[in-house]
Amino acid sequence: MRFSALEILKQGLTGNKGWTQHWRDPAPKSNYDVIIIGGGGHGLATAYYLAKNHGITNVAVLEKGYIGSGNVGRNTTIVRANYGLPGNSEFYSHSLKLWESLEQDLNYNVMHSQRGIINLFHSDGQRDAFVRRGNAMRNQGDDAELLSRDDLRKMVPYLNFDNARFPVRGGLMQRRGGTARHDAVVWGLARGADQRGVDIIQNCEVTGIDIENGVVKGVQTTRGPITAKKVGIVVAGRSSQVAAMAGMRLPIESHILQAFVTEGIKPAIDHVISFGMGHFYISQSDKGGLVFGGDLDFYASYAQRGNLPMAEHVMEAGMALMPAIGKAKVLRSWGGIMDMTPDGSPIIDKTHINGLYLDAGWCYGGFKAVPGSGYSFAHLMATDTHHEPAAKFRLDRFKTGRSLMDEEGTGSQHNLH
Ligand SMILES: Cc1cc2nc3c(=O)[nH]c(=O)nc-3n(C[C@H](O)[C@H](O)[C@H](O)COP(=O)(O)OP(=O)(O)OC[C@H]3O[C@@H](n4cnc5c(N)ncnc54)[C@H](O)[C@@H]3O)c2cc1C
Fold first, then answer.
1. Is 260 helix (H, G, I), strand (E, B) or coil?
2. Closest Cα to atom 32, ligand 1: which residue?
3. Phi and psi (nearest 5°) for 184?
4. Which of 46, 72, 417 to mutate to test the pocket of ligand 1 (most atoms within 8 A of CB)?
5. Residues with a CB atom less than 6 Å from ligand 1
6. Do the Cβ atoms of 227 and 217 come closer than 8 Å?
7. Residue 291, exposed/middle/buried by CB under 10 A (0-12, 13-18, 19+)?
8. Residue 371 Ramachandran class (φ > 0 left, ψ -120 to 50 alpha, else beta)
């Protein structure tokens, strides 16, 4: 069923009884051409583009819980392409272009809102770094604008400009950056993949990967064994655990990232604001809640919930940047498991096992990568060649030390990227 204004009118006049299910609930078959492990944003996007771009439709997405129960349904929904280093630049640029036509492509309203993202700076050194980053973004063909303190005073008057430690001196803005509704992205991709014949199988945990003589043969699941010619691991925070089923030890640490939302208030924050010095960022959802977050919890964990010290740190940073936030009541907080790599950049690559592929290491920035990652990983799985915008996301860079993409300049410190 296609969604359209006419269809809404028709359904509205006939009691809304004709809407069909978004996707089927099939039982797993015993064999597929391709198995995707993980029904998050990246797994669903991979299945969608395998079917759409490559005509490969005998595909199963195996999800241990329900689709969207992982990070893709837990993130703060920021979409941007403001990276500075080769490798990341072209990839995120491609991903942002896919976002810009995703709703038409999926025939689904994912509430993509290009409200602009502003990264604040507070010192001359930070301004210089942002100028370099902005130039790199423009060289890539993306938009970037340096804003003065006076520009910002007009646009975001609620900030504490004269904070003694972090006076706001200006910002780097990408107007094409913004947000999208995370659940809708999951549902739209699932519907699009299902319409093209992909089986989305929920409550089906992969418990083992079958390999014979260096060739993948299929997977063991809680709903029985399934054979396949190709298997993709796309499980974000669980990447190390699932790769270990194939005897691999990944350069990934899993850390918790928390987020917070307040009660709904009248529209107050028109942009996404990032306060890197204080490890704090904020936007306002369409329901009115202030959505904000900060840094990772320090120790590695699979708990999918956060700790109080980081919650306190984020609240302090929020109060330092915009004291008025103290009047809003926090309604909820939650955590997701981030797959942190040593250079903070992702992996889209084949493994040493024939037919086994890996898409991982998205750290805390993988939501905006969803369409780009699905597009490039599908290309790799279908053709066995790297898709150009993602060609630098190789696994062996952590072994050789060559071609690392360390945007933050923090070295091999997983928890700092
Ligand atoms: C609080 C928070 C804020 C964030 N904010 C942003 C942001 O503003 N912008 C941005 O770009 N990114 C953000 N991110 C990061 C982004 O959400 C992740 O990088 C991205 O969602 C990870 O990819 P995914 O969607 O495929 O992961 P997931 O949704 O976690 O998908 C992986 C799936 O694999 C499944 N799985 C695991 N093991 C198995 C198994 N053995 N068998 C079957 N299935 C399995 C899981 O259940 C899960 O559903 C944020 C993350 C968090 C937690």
1. strand
2. 235
3. -65, -30
4. 72
5. 37-43, 62-65, 69-72, 74-78, 205-206, 234-238, 242, 257-259, 293, 336, 362, 364-368
6. yes
7. buried
8. alpha
How many Å separate Cα 59 from the centre of its chain? 22
Q: Can you read off the two tokens belonging to residue 18?
A: 């004709």
Rg (CA), the chain: 21
Residue with tokens 């360390």: 406
Token readout for 13 is 């006049």
Lowest mean pLDDT among 58-72, 79-93, 291-305: 291-305
Would you report the helix, strand and coil content of the chain in percent, each value rounded to 5?
Answer: 35, 25, 40
- Check: CB of residue 142 under 8 Å from CB of residue 93: yes
The pLDDT, as a whole number, for residue 199 is 98
Q: What is the pLDDT of residues 297-338, one digit of tens each?
A: 989 999 988 899 999 999 999 999 999 999 999 999 999 999
For residue 278, what are the CA distances in angstroms to 131, 255, 274? Answer: 20, 19, 9
What is the rounded average pLDDT for all residues in the chain?
96
Q: Express each pLDDT in 389-403 by its tens digit.
A: 999 999 999 999 999
pTM of the model: 0.97
